[in-house]
Amino acid sequence: MLGLGWLAFRAERSHQIAAEQVLLDDARMVGTEFIRRSAFDIAFNGYQTVATALLRSAAEGDPGLPTSLPPHVRALVAHLVVLDHGAYRSIEGGQPPAWLEPWVRQDAAALPRERQEFVVRHRVEGGQAVTLVLVPLDEAGRRLAAFDVNLSAQRPFLQHSLDRGPLLPAIIGDHQLTNAMMSVAHLDHAGAVQLEAGAPRHPEWEVTVPYGAWMDGALAGSTVRVSLDPASAPRVIAGGLPRSNLPLLALSMTGALVLLVLVVRADRRERALAREREDFVVGISHELRTPLAQIRLFTETVLLGRCRSEVEERRFLEAAVRETVRLGHLVDNVLDFSRADRGSLELQLRPRELAPLVAQIAEGFEPLAATRRVRLRLQLDATARASVDEPGFCRILLNLLDNAVKYGPEEGEVTVRLEKVGEGVALAVEDQGPGIPERERTAVFTPFHRLDRDRSSASTGAGLGLSLVHELATRHGGGCRVEDREGGGARLVVTLPLVEVAG
């Protein structure tokens, strides 16, 4: 009995640790997103703006800060100096500190050969954090401007990064977890707090995330300190943080059978929580990161005016739209899966001919298939007819197409077949990929399942697509299965009851 009690205690403690780790992982995600935003804002909207103004004024005469520079950007410059063919002179900001000239000369001599618009350096002087920004004014490096940064002037940029929107994806917390429910603090490279906002600190739930080399080290050495309010735990963890069941366990030790049941339940709950957390975080993070990174790359390129022509600008915007469609498809999958899991997914079935609908869906998917240069081939029976919910049927085919393109080869071919089979209609999507092992052909339709060979692959997903296909096919009165494609690859088939056309 004591042994079983000890096992129960360990299982409960392990479950507690796993649940706590969810809050810490979410806090790290908050810190990483804040670092991405603030490093971009300070480097490009701050240092880049100052460097561009200095280069422009140097080309027109002596370098200086134009009066047209926004006040919050101008405030970043504490002292502006110039090193011109070895001659050091102060431009703005009054008498510069004594340590500035030797630092400028030392770092000017060590500048990299390749041309950079600005270079950022950090150190601690007299217990205070100091940052130096060097701006080469000519190709040979004989003239440069440098300014030490007024670190307190970074606060508006940091606040803007915080105010741009939720730091956690809306899917975490079901749109209810706001920045006000977390404590976010920015510390400079000397450890001084430059910004602290949000909820009160909870040191027991706190994580510290370093800036590292983000944006060429614009804030290297600085850190972000984040903690989530434990009161928000029910929004991100089913049932919230688990409460202690030790009193119940003490009473349960009077019966070995009851105690054994509690141990097994706690152990299963722990394993399910850890597995679902790992699958969901890894899958969703990858699936969200890929289109978001592409959207950010293309839109920032356009916004910064780096397109070489209007044609290239339009091509970048079209690519951003395609990635937005891909992101919307993923979000729709998650929302439909959530509704199905809660039993609130409603379908309205109506008889209709399926061939025009399949062709329409495939045509809309072609831009996404084109990103991997995959050709779609349709073989449709115009007489195939079934009772379907149009949005639900669309979700079925889109998930099958996405799965085929994702796991098939680039420049390959995906075939969509629609035909009458006996008393039903069969919709089949065939790819030229590695196929699905026979032992896993049932498991692929369960939530969060991924093939063993794909767990470390770049093409891995969140494990929701095929489970949603199975759910929707079942609610249509049909089913789904996996077969081998002739010549290699996988053939995923969805069957629906046939509806005859009224004569």
Compute the average pLDDT: 82
Rg, alpha carbons: 29 Å
The largest sheet, given as strand count, sense and whether it forms a barrel, is: 5 strands, antiparallel
The secondary-structure class comes to alpha+beta
Q: Estimate what percentage of residues fall within beta strands.
A: 15-25%
Distance from N terminus to C terminus (CA atoms, Å) equals: 74 Å
In CATH terms, the superfamily of the domain at 350-497 is Histidine kinase-like ATPase, C-terminal domain
| CATH structural class of the domain at 350-497 | Alpha Beta
The total count of helices amounts to: 12
Looking at the overall shape, the CATH architecture of the domain at 350-497 is 2-Layer Sandwich
**Total number of strands:** 16
Strand order of the largest sheet: 2-1-5-4-3
Shape: globular
Q: Low-confidence segments, ≥5 residues, pLDDT <50?
A: none
Order of helices and strands: HHEEHEEEHEEEHEHHHHEHEEHEEHEE
Helix amount = 40-55%
CATH topology of the domain at 350-497: Heat Shock Protein 90
In terms of topology, how is this protein built?
Elements: H1 2-60, H2 71-74, E1 77-84, E2 87-92, H3 100-109, E3 119-125, E4 128-136, E5 143-149, H4 155-163, E6 182-187, E7 193-198, E8 206-210, H5 214-217, E9 223-228, H6 233-236, H7 246-252, H8 256-303, H9 310-342, E10 350-353, H10 354-370, E11 375-380, E12 385-388, H11 390-407, E13 413-421, E14 424-430, H12 465-475, E15 479-484, E16 490-497
Helix pairs in contact: 1-4, 1-8, 8-9, 9-12, 10-11, 11-12
